[in-house]
Design brief:
Length: 112
């Protein structure tokens, strides 16, 4: 239920070329504005790949579930894949929170 979403936190690896472009900055800020108008706080942080070696997959983690999802390239290319429900929601949420603490806001990475 999208009406119950109040916060979205995106965490990704920092890839200077992919994250540094003006279009990416503009698109993210526009999305932040759109989410804010709906009462949703959108944050994006980046982390060095050396700090996240023990987790490879992509996840959507909510208050009550976690799903393993395909990578963006697979989704965009139309490859067959699945979103799988995980039984490790609490473990994944703990990992995410630790990574989030070690990551930096994308805005800081852009100005570096």
């Amino acid at each position: 239920d999208r009406n119950s979403v109040s916060s979205v936190r995106l965490l990704s690896l920092f890839l200077a070329d992919a994250h540094a472009g003006r279009k990416v900055k503009r698109d993210f800020r526009n999305l932040q504005t759109e989410f804010a108008a709906r009462g949703v706080d959108l944050q994006w942080r980046v982390i060095d790949s050396q700090l996240i070696k023990d987790t490879h997959d992509r996840w959507i983690i909510s208050d009550d579930a976690a799903r393993n999802i395909p990578n963006v390239n697979a989704i965009m290319s139309g490859q067959h894949s699945e979103l799988n429900l995980s039984s490790q929601r609490a473990v994944l949420a703990g990992l995410f929170d630790g990574y989030w603490s070690d990551a930096q806001p994308i805005e800081g990475a852009w100005s570096a």
